[in-house]
C-alpha cells in the first residue's frame, strides 16, 4: 500500500474513490465535515439524526456519491475526551474493516480534526500506516485460491502536519508494517518450505537489495571449526543442513558499536528423541518465529535507513529424531567451552542460541537481544499478550519495555536470579539443559545468561506472542517492539 500526504482546503471539491471522515460521537459537524455534508445534500447529518451512524469507536458507515467523491466513509471515533491511543487503534481496525469491504482502490483520509489525547499526529499516522499495512497481509504461498488482496492500494492523508513530516511518519509506519509482514510470511511458511537453507537464501536476497547489508552464511563445517558443539547437537538428527546466518547492516559510523539481534530459527521442532506429543505439533513450524522477527526488523531498519549499525544473527536448524540424533544424557561442548548435559532434546532452543550468543561477542556489541519461541512455560506464565523479557542490565530492560509500550507490542520483565540458575546443576557436565518442572521460562533464560556475561543482553521469550492458534497465523511480533527500540537508539 502506498501512503502519501496532502493539504485539502475543501474536501467536497477533492476527487477520490472514497473520502474517509472520522467523526466523534455527539459532536456538531464543522470544518471539512460540514462542507462535505452540504455537498452531499445533508446525507451525513441525516445518517446521524436517523441513528444509522452512532459514532462508536471504529464504527463504519458508507454514503454514496458526493460530487467527485464516489463514496464518503464515516468512521466513528467515540467520545472526543476518551480518544486515546487505545481508541485510535480501535479506529484503525474499524477503518481497515470498512475499507476492506469496499472495492475502492484509493482513499482520502481526512484525519485533520481528531486529536489523540495522549499522542501527537505523527504517532497517529505512523500507527495507521503500520496497522493498515499489516492487516492487509495475506498468506498466499501454498494455496490455490488465496484470500484476495485488499482493493485499496493508495491512501492519501490530509492532516494538519506539513507534507514532509506527515509522509515521514507514514513511511516509518509502513516500513514497520512491511517488516511485520515479512516476519508473518516466513513464520507462516510450512516447515518443508521454510528450511534453514530457505532462510539463508532470504538473507542473501536482503544482502543483494541493500548495499549497506553484508551477508555471511556459516555452514556446518565452519560451525564445527568454531567449536559450536551445542548448536550442532540439535541438527544431528536431520538431513536438513543447519545454517548460522549473519547479516550486518552498516547505517551508522564505522566506530559505532552495533546492536545485535539473535533469532532462534528452529524451522521445525519435533522435540527430537524427546519427541513431542502429536497434538498441535504442526505449530512447531513456528519455532523460527524469533528468526522471522529478526528478518522483519532488518527489513524495517533498512527501509528506514536508520543511522546505526545492526548485526542480525539467525541460528537455523531443524530438530528431528533419527539414528544419528542426540540422545537424552549425551554431553556436548559449547563454543564457550562449557559442557552441557542434554537431559531433554526438546530443550533445543537454548542449545542453538548459546553458541550464537558466544559467536556475537566478536562484535563488541552495544547490546545483544535474542528473540526466541523458547518455552511452553512462558505461554503458561504470560499467555499471548506479553512477551517475556529478561535482561542482565536494567537500562536495557527499561528501554525495551518502553519500546513495547510505545508500539503496543508489549513485554513484561521476569527475573534472572541465581536461585533459578541452581536448578541447572548437573553431575556429568557444567550445566544441564533443563531445570525441572518449575519456572521453565526463567530457567531457560538463566541457561542463556551463562553465555552472555560479556555484554549487555536481553532475551525475549515470544512463545506466546509469535503466533495465534485460532485463527492460526503468525503475528509478526515483536517486530514493532524491536524496530521502535532501534529507532529510539538512532535518536
Ligand atoms: N519450541 C519449544 C517451546 C514452545 C512450546 C513454544 C510450545 C511454543 C509453544 C521449545 O523448544 C520446547 O520444546 N521447550 C520445552 C522445554 C522443556 C523440555 C524444558 C517446553 O517448553 O516444553
Ligand atoms: Mn523444543
Ligand atoms: Zn523449540
UniProtKB/TrEMBL annotation:
CC cofactor note: Binds 2 manganese ions per subunit.
SUPFAM superfamilies reported for this sequence: Macro domain-like, Zn-dependent exopeptidases
InterPro entries given in the database record: Leucine_aapep/pepB, Macro_dom-like, Peptidase_M17_C, Peptidase_M17_leu_NH2_pept, Peptidase_M17_N
One protein family per Pfam: Peptidase_M17
Enzyme class: hydrolase
Active site: 276, 350
Main location per the UniProt record: cytoplasm
The protein's required cofactors: Mn(2+)
Top-rank taxon: Bacteria
Its biological purpose: Presumably involved in the processing and regular turnover of intracellular proteins. Catalyzes the removal of unsubstituted N-terminal amino acids from various peptides.
HAMAP family: Cytosol_peptidase_M17
Protein name: Probable cytosol aminopeptidase
Organism: Halioglobus japonicus
Amino acid at each position: 500500500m502506498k501512503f502519501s500526504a496532502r493539504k485539502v482546503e475543501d474536501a467536497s471539491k477533492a476527487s477520490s474513490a472514497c473520502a474517509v471522515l472520522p467523526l466523534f460521537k455527539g459532536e456538531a459537524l464543522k470544518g471539512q465535515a460540514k462542507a462535505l455534508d452540504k455537498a452531499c445534500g445533508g446525507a451525513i447529518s441525516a445518517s446521524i439524526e436517523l441513528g444509522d451512524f452512532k459514532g462508536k469507536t471504529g464504527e463504519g458507515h458508507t454514503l454514496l456519491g458526493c460530487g467527485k467523491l464516489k463514496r464518503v466513509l464515516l468512521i466513528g471515533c467515540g467520545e472526543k475526551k476518551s480518544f486515546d491511543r487505545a481508541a485510535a487503534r480501535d479506529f484503525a481496525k474499524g477503518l481497515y474493516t470498512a475499507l476492506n469491504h469496499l472495492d475502492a482502490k484509493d482513499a482520502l483520509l481526512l484525519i485533520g480534526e481528531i486529536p489523540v489525547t495522549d499522542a501527537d499526529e505523527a504517532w497517529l499516522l505512523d500507527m495507521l500506516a503500520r496497522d493498515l499495512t499489516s492487516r492487509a497481509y495475506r498468506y498466499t504461498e501454498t494455496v490455490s485460491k488465496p484470500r484476495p488482496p485488499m482493493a485499496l492500494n493508495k491512501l492519501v492523508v490530509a492532516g494538519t502536519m506539513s507534507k514532509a513530516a506527515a509522509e515521514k511518519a507514514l513511511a516509518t509506519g509502513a516500513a514497520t508494517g512491511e517488516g511485520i509482514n515479512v516476519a508473518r510470511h516466513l513464520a507462516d511458511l510450512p516447515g518443508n518450505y521454510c528450511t534453514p537453507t530457505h532462510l539463508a537464501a532470504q538473507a542473501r536476497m536482503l544482502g543483494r537489495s541493500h548495499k549497506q547489508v553484508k551477508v555471511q552464511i556459516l555452514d556446518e563445517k565452519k560451525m564445527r571449526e568454531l567449536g559450536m558443539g551445542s548448536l550442532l547437537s540439535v541438527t544431528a538428527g536431520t538431513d536438513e543442513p543447519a545454517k548460522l546466518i549473519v547479516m550486518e547492516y552498516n547505517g551508522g559510523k564505522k566506530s559505532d558499536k552495533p546492536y545485535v539481534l539473535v533469532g532462534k530459527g528452529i524451522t521445525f521442532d519435533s522435540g527430537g528423541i524427546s519427541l513431542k506429543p502429536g497434538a498441535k505439533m504442526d505449530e512447531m513450524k513456528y519455532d523460527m518465529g524469533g528468526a522471522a522477527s529478526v528478518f522483519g526488523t532488518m527489513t524495517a531498519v533498512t527501509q528506514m535507513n536508520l543511522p546505526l549499525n545492526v548485526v542480525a544473527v539467525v541460528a537455523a536448524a531443524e530438530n528431528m529424531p533419527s539414528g544419528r540424533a542426540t540422545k537424552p544424557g549425551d554431553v556436548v561442548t559449547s563454543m564457550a567451552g562449557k559442557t552441557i548435559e542434554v537431559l531433554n532434546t526438546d530443550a533445543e532452543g537454548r542449545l542453538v542460541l548459546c553458541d550464537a550468543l558466544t559467536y556475537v561477542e566478536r562484535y563488541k556489541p552495544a547490546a545483544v537481544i535474542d528473540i526466541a519461541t523458547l518455552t511452553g512455560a512462558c505461554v503458561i506464565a504470560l499467555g499471548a499478550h506479553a512477551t517475556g523479557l529478561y535482561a542482565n542490565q536494567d537500562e536495557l530492560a527499561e528501554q525495551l519495555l518502553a519500546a513495547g509500550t510505545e508500539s503496543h507490542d508489549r513485554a513484561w520483565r521476569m527475573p534472572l536470579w541465581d536461585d533459578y540458575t541452581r536448578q541447572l546443576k548437573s553431575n556429568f557436565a557444567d550445566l544441564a539443559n533443563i531445570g525441572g518442572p518449575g519456572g521453565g521460562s526463567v530457567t531457560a533464560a538463566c541457561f542463556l545468561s551463562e553465555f552472555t556475561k560479556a555484554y549487555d543482553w536481553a532475551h525475549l521469550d515470544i512463545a506466546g506472542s509469535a503466533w495465534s492458534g485460532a485463527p492460526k497465523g503468525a503475528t509478526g511480533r515483536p517486530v514493532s517492539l524491536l524496530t521502535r527500540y532501534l529507532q529510539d537508539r538512532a535518536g
